[in-house]
Structure formats: structure tokens, C-alpha cells
Amino acid sequence: MKKHKVIFQPSGRRGEVEEGKTLLEAAQSLGVDIEALCGNKKVCGKCKVRIEEGYFEKDNIDSGMSHLSPLTEDEKKHIKPEDGPGMRLACSAGVYGDLKVFVPERSRAGKQVVRKAAKELIIALDPAVKKYNVVLQPPSLHDMTTGDYERVLKFLEDDYGLKELKFDYLVLKDLQTVLRKGEWRVTVTVWMDREIIKVEPGFEEACYGLAVDVGTTTCVGYLTDLSTGKVVNTESMMNPQVPYGEDVMSRITYAMTNPDGLDTMQKAIITGLNEIIERVVSEIKKDGPHPGHAIDDLTIVFNTAMHHILLGFDPVYIGRSPFIPAVQNSLNIKARDIGLKINPSAYIHVLPIEAGFVGADNVGVLIAEEPYNQNEMMLVIDIGTNGELLLGNWNKVCSTSCATGPAFEGAQIKFGMRAAPGAIEVVQIDPDTKEPRYKVIGKTDWHSHLEKINAKGICGSGIIEVVAEMFKAGIIDKSGKFVMDLQTPRVRKGSDGKPEYVLAWAEETSIGTDITVTQGDVRALQLAKGALYAGAKLMMKRLGITEIDRVVLAGAFGSHISREASLTLGMFPDCHIDKVYAVGNAAGDGARMALLNRGKRIEASERARWVEFIEIATDPAFEKEFMQAMHIPHMKDRFPNLKELLAKSGSRVEIKG
Amino acid sequence: MKKHKVIFQPSGRRGEVEEGKTLLEAAQSLGVDIEALCGNKKVCGKCKVRIEEGYFEKDNIDSGMSHLSPLTEDEKKHIKPEDGPGMRLACSAGVYGDLKVFVPERSRAGKQVVRKAAKELIIALDPAVKKYNVVLQPPSLHDMTTGDYERVLKFLEDDYGLKELKFDYLVLKDLQTVLRKGEWRVTVTVWMDREIIKVEPGFEEACYGLAVDVGTTTCVGYLTDLSTGKVVNTESMMNPQVPYGEDVMSRITYAMTNPDGLDTMQKAIITGLNEIIERVVSEIKKDGPHPGHAIDDLTIVFNTAMHHILLGFDPVYIGRSPFIPAVQNSLNIKARDIGLKINPSAYIHVLPIEAGFVGADNVGVLIAEEPYNQNEMMLVIDIGTNGELLLGNWNKVCSTSCATGPAFEGAQIKFGMRAAPGAIEVVQIDPDTKEPRYKVIGKTDWHSHLEKINAKGICGSGIIEVVAEMFKAGIIDKSGKFVMDLQTPRVRKGSDGKPEYVLAWAEETSIGTDITVTQGDVRALQLAKGALYAGAKLMMKRLGITEIDRVVLAGAFGSHISREASLTLGMFPDCHIDKVYAVGNAAGDGARMALLNRGKRIEASERARWVEFIEIATDPAFEKEFMQAMHIPHMKDRFPNLKELLAKSGSRVEIKG
Fold first, then answer.
1. Per DSSP, what are the bridge partners of residue A440?
2. pLDDT attached to residue B173
3. pLDDT in tens, B595-629
4. Are the beta carbons of A140 and B329 separated by less than 8 Å?
5. Is the CB of residue A325 less than 8 Å away from at least one CB of chain B?
6. CB A236 within 8 A of CB A116
7. CA–CA separation, B197 vs B189, rounded Å?
8. Cβ distance B210 to B300 under 8 Å?
9. pLDDT digit string (tens) for B174-220?
10. What pLDDT is attached to residue B650?
């Protein structure tokens, strides 16, 4: 395989790259972060890079050979004259010679702020996997009819009361060697008091589990010390299935229309999770041939489509009536059967699903938030690429799902970006002057107090906040339309002739161009919030209630959202602002709880059956509700005393617990 | 890959063979049987073939290029001038051009008479694996919250009382498709009332299991219809580990001295068993990508070394003091974990072992012969490459193992061969004239009544018979030495200067040379029988008994052995000839019983622990017993009324049961 030297600037990272690889692949292999929001789908145009030199050596100067593959149609669409010369899309340009490449600030991904960061959970420690120290007498000719296997079992029964344990076959294969290496002192890892899934020489204390949340767009893994319950490390990544479809339905379609579609997507997510595993264990184990084998348990939550695709079940039947899932029960699957590179003898615990559209992720939310242990009527909104809703109390809980699209995650937004340094996340707009002030991630002060702001884009919670502020400042009306002829240069027509609001001028940014909120951005947000609102309203009707006592916002950015903005926009039915809580990644919390306490696994199975699934997409009333819910209500109409409330509670919600 | 045309005569089979393959591989791939007693170890010299033509086309005649690899040192050792021109060892000569090859009769393996043929067993049918018909209502929008998995489980519980079943992950992956292909009528295969290991569309009746007996030298598989208990097909082959060592200890040594030794031997036996699986299912299933998947259960017996190597446990610890096995309990291992190509979701049931030297094969004999259900003091001799002994009754049963070597199987005997057509198996020698008469396998008459005899060699039971007859006729004395100066041309000095007895003249054979019994053959047999006899004697001493009520001969050729000859030679301590039974492959019977009745699996586990293992090899008395036991006693001294007894019972033993 021919290789070429590639240098990335300004980081200076360099290395040899196989011919034909894209610049994005080259960057990833060399540890250079380039924004690829669309997941290599060649549609977002956010991975622009500038080719500085196409050669290193004098000899090559006059050869006239291009060191890159020809410009593609995708690139022609995205690269504008104003981008300047030498610009290419990193996802599309292939390496065919030595190169020096400059990654503009705008295209740099930066280290993503993990919005799915783990909060502390208060739960009794009773993990499915436990370690036991075993000390044996070296065998002699007096007990030569007792095998190694039987000696270990006898000790575990005599000293720990563990009866009728099985050995996993792979553990058994190594047992003799490990016993002798440990000089008859070993540590035995037991799963569910039933099966020995590891034997290590000597006495080992540390025992690790991984709680995994596979979202349609983002995957995250929480490495947990099962002896303390603490999260030791968190790693996340974009779901590698994104290139095969941005949402659930398009991935199901991909599986239906491509002969190897299911297999391809399954391999992609397994490979992705193995990368998370490899990265997450770097915190605890840096050497050895299989560092991932330090993980002895894994719990996983996901929506039903991600569940089916990851487990290799054909998702076609959940994509069409009567929407029957392959399985709803929780599953325990050997890690090696599914190709996850943790301890191959360990089990993956898959949380149960509720129905075709309400998955194990929602069960995770359910056992984390426990609406069934409340008197108050509680609405739990899990905001991801899909919105999933739980409504109820101890008496009854209903669930449903509604398609919000990825706008809340910053996708489909012109200057949308992941929650990374430079992303605008807090915004206020002066109703008189229409001048904004904003904060970017990584800096605590308002932008007006900063010398160098280096804004780069707007993250999901920033989008919600800026649109709410635009409405309150009269820049858009309740239908979401721009009000023109406002005496401000910030409201103008964009290059596409449609109105836009300039949130940050080019000189305040690190990307050299104005950061704007467009009419299209506002529409995308209205569609998303309308779907949520309509879903909640219909559930209330079904339950025959008119009031909600408490709203819990869960999801990737649920912990960063402004309560005021979400109420202003009408993301959910009215609720007293004091009773709106953000809980962060509750689905992930559920996975973590199931990892730490096996009683939670039983609770999950029982409650998943107990919750009543309500189908709202086919409800004739849905469209009407949805059309109404697209409008933006003004919260002042509903909360006359909002200012006092905010003064008392602060406008930003903190993570509870 | 370059290929060449090869024709084998006289069968006329022909085909294309990859360059570099040996003639033996070529023959095997074209279905031509060539004797390869040493298992391709290049030591037996029995695979001689004559190259008839090294070319097919005129153009090649004058090229002078050889169509074969050069003569090897092994070949030079084995090929004698009297073999005539063009002779090569098929195991050593590589194909490098078109060839016509003649396989002399002597080198033809013929279809082996499976000495491990299955006898009928009388046992209640209660297999571990059972099939159930399931009929579901097609799902509708009214029950969309119930998954396919849960529907199947509910039916099995409601209609068959099967509770808390698990699905194997691989079965679950295909469940949705199979249910729809079968239009909601499927057949579910359940293992041990615990786990679903197969779902097939429509209603399937047939359910198959395979009982496997892996001997040091021979492997055999009995394909069994689990709904009738009948053996449908039997396939056997030489253990493909033979090239790595002819006996147990040399294979353990191979594993110790070669870094990949264990892995190599494990792969060899797994590959061999997969070949047996492929051949054995040809009787029931000829098409489809995985015909072996028709097998849903597999039981296996073997000695402890074969057990460890096949399961990938390091055999080194059972080869040295204190001889501790990795595991003694029975094991259930997923077929896919071990690479056996039956239903990958099925389990392999490994019968328990007794001790380092008494393996699962002996447990098979134990549960087949049930000495623990007898009042009589019973000696069970399982004769294979090792001899394993059980002695006892309801009160107590002891076991031991003694190294007999492979002489009983026809190996290490000059004209020894497997039990195939042409093998001499019955012999009588006139004490006055020293003239023999004999029968060959495949023909019912004595040789003297046949026009064309075509004797080819002597099989294991034939060797025992001829040596016993030689003793009775005064050709050898009680120490095993040849008596010379007998007025017969049949006793002569061989080409090595040592005495030999001509059993068949060249013209009676199909191999064109006299078939003789040499001094070395007699010695090999004496060593083997001496080990057995001494072992049994020492066990009797330990048990404090002086008489045995009943002798059961088990093993590959146990069903063909002459009771008179075995008593004449003194293969085991005295017992009334009416009380000597041959039971055939009792180890295989045990495997078959465990396949047909799961109660037998529990019995095996309990009895394997209950039997007392006695170590005799290290007993100081062993050597003395062994030296004495090498001598040949004359049975007339012990059974004065033998002739009447024989007249009453017939001299050949029939398979009981």
C-alpha cells in the first residue's frame, strides 16, 4: 500500500497516510479533530480545509501531478468563492501525494463538552458482577481425583455460600494456568451468583462495568467502578450509523433496501462501541493486549430501532404496522457473541423495551426518574433525536414517542454545532435595541466583557434560548416569521434572500463570518418543539387530566436548557416554573443504575410491562394539535409573576441529585 | 493455483488436483481409499502406489520434467527393490504434473468394517433436546406491545408448561424471519427445558443427536434419531492427532514441547469431528449450506488426555504428578464456542471424567454396563489404545488404567491392518501339521474352501487368535519364543533373521507376499495382554477378592474377540468361559445413552464420583505382576472341560443386548 506524508496545521500533527484515504480519515488517524457534523455523509459542508502545499520535496514541484483526488460534486456545492483558493471538503478529498493542510478554526471540532456527563447517583451497591478471593491448598497425590474446577467451586461454596456455579468455557480453558500463576491464590469474578466469568491470578480489588447509552446521534459510555459506584471515565462519540440515515426511519429504510444494510450498520455501531471501550479504559489500564477485558459487565439502553440494529434483529417489522418488536424482555448476551471487546466471558445486559417506538432508553429514564413512586402528576421529556414522553404517577404511567428531528442537538441549524468550546449557549436580546449579549462555552463572562470571543457557532440549548429571546424582543412573531423593518442592521436578508438575525459579527468569531439565526433555523425548532408539545397534550387528554404537577427535562442537553426559554417557546404544556427540573441524561442514569444494582434490572422488567404505551402519531387529533403547537406562546400571558420567580430560583436549571 | 489431472487405477477415479498436494491427499479428495495406518506420519509404509504414467499428452513425453516431487528419505526406507519400478509412498509424493497412479490391492484401505458399530440399546427415551410445535395468531395492532419472543414463550408455557425459557442469542436473531416464513407455525427445539436452541418454519418431526467417542486412535460418531432412539448412521475415522503422537503420553509431550502444540492438536480433532459430522448427516440431509446444523445435541466420551486436548485445556498437568485434571464434572459447552459445526446454538454434553487416567470414555462404559446394579463381581475391560478396567459390584466399584499400546488395534504388527475386507480375523492351526485355516473379513468360508482368497493382512482380533493358536500348536512356548526345527516350511527365519510363522502364502493374498506373524508381533501382543492382566490382578488384591464372577470385554474389537483365545493367552484373570461377554463399544454406548436419556447424565455424574480410582502404575507390586503376566498360560490347565463348554456355547462371542 502506497503511503504519503501529510501535515496538518496549525496543530503540526503529521504522519504517513495510505493512498486513497480521505483527509478526514487522515485527520482522525493522526488525532486531528475536524468537524464532521453530518457523520461523513458529505452534506453538512462543515469540514472545509485549505491545502497549503501539495508537495514536500523539490523533485515533485514540476511533476504537475495532483496530490489530491479531483473536486467532487458535493464539494462544488459547498465551497464558495469567498472561501478562498485551495479549499476542499476533508470528507471528500482523497490523498494521492504528500500534503500540507490547514484546518480553519471554524472546521475544528475541539474537544466536545460531554453533555451526557454523569451525575452522582444515590443507589445501594448490589452489582450483578462481584469479585471473590480464593485461596486453595496446592494439590497433592492425596487428592488427585479432584480437578481444579471442583477445588475452586468447593472454596466458593464453603467460604461464600455460592452454590452450583457454572464456569464459562473460556475461563475454564485458562483456569489451570491462572491457578498456578497465582500460586493457588486467585480472584474469581461471578455473574449473578450463577457463573464464573473471570479468574485472575492473585488478589484483584478493582471491578469495572460500563453503562452504555446508544442514541440515534450520540453514543456515550460511563466506565464505573463497581466497588464504589463512581464513574471513572466517560467517553462519547457520534453514532457511526449516522452516514446510513440521520433518523430512525431512514436507518430502517437503509436496512430494508440494502442487502447487507443491517449487517453494515450493526458492524458500524459495534466497531464504534469498541472504540469507546478502548478509549474509556485508558483511564484504568494502559497496557496488555486486551485492556477492554477489564470490563466485566455492561448495561445498555437505546431506542427500539438502535436496539434491533445493534443486536442484529431485522428492524423492518418495527418500521411497519403492526410495529412488532423482535423481543421486549431484557436480554443477557455473551459479549463474545456480539463482538464487544470487553471480557469475552462477560454478559451484556440489554434493558427491556416498552414497545416498537418506546425503547430501552425510555425504560432507563423510567427507572431513573421513577414516576411510579410519585404522587404528583409528572411529565418526563427525554429529548434526543426523538422525543420520548412519560406521563403519570404511582397510579398509572403512559409513554409515547414523537419525532422531533435533530434540531435540539444543533443539527439542521445553519450555524449549529455540538456543545464544544466556542459554541454560543446563553443569549439575551435587548427588546429595544435588538442587540444581543451572549456567552460561549469555555468562557464565563458575557461576550461584551471579553476582548477575544472566538464564537464558533450555536449549540442546541443556545438555539432554544436565542429563538425564545428573538420572540420576546419582537424579532419574530408568534408564527415564527421575521418582523422586518426593525431599525437594526442585525435583521437582514441572507444570501438566500430569506431573513436572518446576526447573533455575532464576524470579528467576534473565530470563523471569520457572521453567525446568524435564519428563518429555516426558527422553522426547524418550531417543528421539533411542536411535536413535543402536541404529544404531551394528547397524552394528557388520554389520561383525562388538564394539569401537570412537575416537568422533568431529560436528554443530552436537558441539563443546560433554560427553563424560561423552554416555557417561552412552549416546548411542553404549562407547568409552574419552579416545578421544571432538568436531570441530564436520565436514560444513561438508568443504564448506570442497572449496572450498580441488580434489583433495578428486575424493576426495569416489571415497570416496562406496567407502563402503558400510547400511540399518538396515528391519532386523528395529532395533526391539529401539532399545527397549533408550532406557534410560540408568550409566557407572560401564563406566568404574570415570572420575574419574581426567576429572581428567586435563577434562570438556569442545575442538575438535581 | 496450478492444478493437474490425476487418474487412480484400478478404480478409474480421476480429477484435478492442486499442485504440491500429496498423492494421499489427492486420493482422499477423489474418494480413493489408500491405507494410511500411521495417519500420515510417514512411518508405516503401507501407502505404496505405482506411478503408471507421468504424463497424458504427447507434448509432455520428451520434456523430461518429473511430474512428482523427489523421492524422500522416508520413501527410500520403505520402498524395496522387490516392490518393482515406479513405486512411491502416497503420503510423501507430491503432484507436480499429470499422473496415472495404480493403487496395489495391498495398499487399498477398502471400506473399514466399523468395529465400533452401534448395537441396539434398551433405554427409556428422555433426550435433553425436544421439539415442540408452536402456532401463533398473526400479530395485529391490538397487541402491538407484545414482541415475537414473548408470544413464543407464552405459547410454550400455556400449551406445554415450559416456564422461564431462555432464547439462545443466535436463534433470537432469526426469530422474526422464521415466524413469518412459517406463517406463524414453527417448530421450537428446547434444550433441558431451559433454552430455545432452534426455531424452524413449519412443523418438523425429525430431531437428531450425535454420540461421539474420541479414541486415541479411532473416532466414531453415531447419528441418532432422538424421536425413535435408533442409530441412523455411523461414521468413523482415524484420530487426526495420530501424527502428533501415537499414544496419550506422546501427545501430552507434543503439547508441552511445541508452543502451538495444544492448539494444533485441538484444531486437528475439531476438524476431524467436523468431517465425521459432515459425512454422518449425508444420510439425512444432503443439501443446504449447513447440513450439520440438523444435529441439535451431541454427547462425547474420551479419555482424559483426549478430553483436555479437544477442549483446549493444557494436558501437561495430567501428565505429571499429582496428575490433576482441569475439570472432572460434566460440561455443557455451546457448539459454536468449540467450533463444532452442528447447530451452533446447541450444547455439547461432555461426560464427566473419573481421574487423570480414567476418562469420560470409562464413565461411558460404567453407565452402559452398570456394574453398580449387579450382585456379581464384574470385571469390565475396555480395550483400546489404553486399557481401562472397572471391577466391583453394587457395594463398590474401582477403576484403573493401564498402558496396553495399540497392538490390539492391529498397529505395531507387521501385517496388522484395520478391520476391513481381506483382513484375517479367524484362525485355527492344526497342532500336528502346523497348517492353518483362516477366514477373512468379507467372506464366510474358511480359506481352504475358497478359490480366490485375497487375504491382505491381520486385524486386531485375528492377531489374538493366531497367537493363541500358535501357542496351542506348540509353535511358540509359554514365554512367547518360537520353537524352531518344527518340520514345517511355515516356521522360518524372516529377512531380519528372526523367526516368523507364515499364516498365508503369497498366492493366497492380494498383496503378492507371504503374510507372516513375527517374533516382534508376538512380543507386542504379550506386552499388551500382560499389562491388562497385571492391572486386573492388582485391583483384585486391593479389593481383597480372589475370584471374578463375570468378565465384560468392551472396546473397538471387543465384540469380535474369541473368548477361547483371550483365555488361552491370559488376557484377564480366570473366569468361567460362560461368564465372558463381549459388549462392543461400551464407551460409545454410554455416550448414546446419555444422548437418549438425560437421567443417564445425572447417573454418570453421580457414579463418576462414586467409583474409586486406584493408581496401579506406581504400585511396587506392578512390575512383578506384569513380568509374570507376559507368559502365556495354557487354558487346558484351568478349564479341563473346555471342549464341552465350547460345544455348548460356540467359540465366538455374540454381541449381547
1. A424
2. 94
3. 999 999 999 999 999 999 888 877 888 888 888 88
4. no
5. yes
6. yes
7. 6
8. no
9. 999 999 999 999 999 999 999 999 999 999 888 999 999 998 878 99
10. 43
Is 50 exceeded by the pLDDT of residue B657? no
Mean of per-residue pLDDT scores for chain A = 86
The minimal CB distance from A328 to the residues B147, B175, B331 is found for B147
Q: Tell me if chain A has a CB within 8 Å of the CB of B40.
A: no
Given CB atoms, is B311 within the 8 Å cutoff of chain A?
yes
Strands (E), B19-127: 48-53, 87-89, 99-102
Question: Which residues, other chains included, contact B494 with Cβ-Cβ below 8 Å and sequence gap of 6+?
Answer: B500, B516, B518
Report the half-sphere exposure of B417 (CA within 13 A, side-chain side).
Answer: 32
- Residue in B150, B321, B338 nearest the CB of A141: B321
The tens digit of pLDDT for each residue in B382-432 reads 887 778 899 999 999 999 888 777 677 666 788 887 777 888 999 999 999
The domains of chain B, with CATH numbers, are 3-107 (3.10.20.30), 129-201 (3.10.20.880), 210-350 (3.30.420.480), 368-406+525-649 (3.30.420), 416-520 (no CATH)
Q: Do A147 and B329 touch (CB under 8 A)?
A: yes
Q: Indicate yes or no: pTM above 0.80.
A: no
* Residue B80 parent element (H or E): none
Interface touch A176/B317, C-beta < 8 Å: yes
Kindly determine whether residue A140 and residue B615, on different chains, have CB atoms separated by under 8 Å.
no
Whether B228 contacts chain A with CB within 8 A: no
Q: What is the pLDDT of residue B635?
A: 55
Tens-digit pLDDT profile for residues A43-92: 778 888 888 877 544 444 344 457 888 888 888 888 888 787 788 999 89
Residue B323 contacts A where some CB pair is shorter than 8 Å: yes
How many C-beta atoms surround the C-beta of residue B272 within 10 A?
Answer: 18
Cα distance between residue B571 and residue B553, in whole Å: 10
Chain B touched by A322 (CB under 8 Å): yes
Chain B residue numbers with beta carbons less than 8 Å from the beta carbon of A176 are 313-314, 317, 324, 326
A329 with B149: Cβ contact below 8 A: yes
* Number of A–B residue contacts, CB under 8 Å: 127
Q: What is the pLDDT of residue B55?
A: 52
pLDDT at A202: 94
Positions of E strands within A446-601: 457-458, 491-493, 499-504, 515-518, 550-555, 580-584
Question: Residues of A with CB below 8 A from B149's CB?
Answer: 326-329
Residue of A142, A311, A324 for testing the chain B interface, max B β-carbons within 10 Å: A324
* B450 close to A (CB below 8 A): no
- Nearest-angstrom CA–CA distance, A132 and B525: 53
Nearest residue on chain B to A325, judged by CA atoms?
B147
B337 touches chain A (CB under 8 A): yes
DSSP-derived secondary structure letter, A94: B
Q: What is the pLDDT of residues A216-249, one digit of tens each?
A: 878 999 999 999 999 999 998 888 887 787 778 8
pLDDT of residue B145: 66
CA angle A115, A118, A124 (to 5 degrees): 160
Cβ distance B175 to A326 less than 8 Å, yes or no, reads yes
Phi, psi of A484 (to 5 degrees): -90, -175
| pLDDT confidence band for B167 (50 / 70 / 90) | very high
User: What's the average model confidence in pLDDT over A356-361?
Assistant: 83
Q: Does B148 touch chain A (CB under 8 A)?
A: yes
According to the model, what pLDDT value does residue B62 have?
42
Task: Give the β-pairing of A195-201 and A166-167.
Answer: parallel
Residue in B with minimal Cα distance to A176? B326
pLDDT of residue B102: 84
Q: Which of A176, A177, A320, A609 to mutate to test binding with chain B, by most B CBs within 10 Å of its CB?
A: A176
